[in-house]
Amino acid sequence: MSQRVWRRDAELPPADLDAIRDGVILHGRQQTQGSDARDIACGLYEDGQLIAGAWGRTEFQRLYLSYIWVQPEHRGQGLGGQLLRQIEAQALKRGCVDALIETLLDEAADCFEHLGYACVAYLHDYVPGFTRHTLLKVWQPRD
Questions:
Q1: Least confident of 16-30, 57-71, 111-125
Q2: Which of 26, 38, 56, 57 lies 20 to 30 Å from 91, alpha-carbon distance?
């Protein structure tokens, strides 16, 4: 007879946490048709050092941008917008018709709106003092 044991928090090894996440993602993708998920990334280097980068995935003809980052001493120079244009160009080459970004920073949401994104949803006080903004940029309307 097998023995069942509950484990919580730090009792679960990192590999098991990965298995939970991967299992949910796999189950969700099995419910849909045409999943073609691929990582997408872009980095800017200066003297061999990463100073800015963006990372996400493309799937279902959509760019999902997870992270966009610029080293603090390089901010305010337009690098975030340049990163966004670089990764959008890659997504367009992959056949994406739109892009989705989420942020908790009002300033970032304003910047994304300035770059052609529209706020399609927001959740005030998602984290105390922060609003979760969901922004979408449409290059080609979906059927």
A1: 16-30
A2: 26
What's the pLDDT tens digit per position in 96-126?
999 999 999 999 999 999 999 999 999 999 9
Paired tokens of 51: 């100073």
Quote the pTM value. 0.84
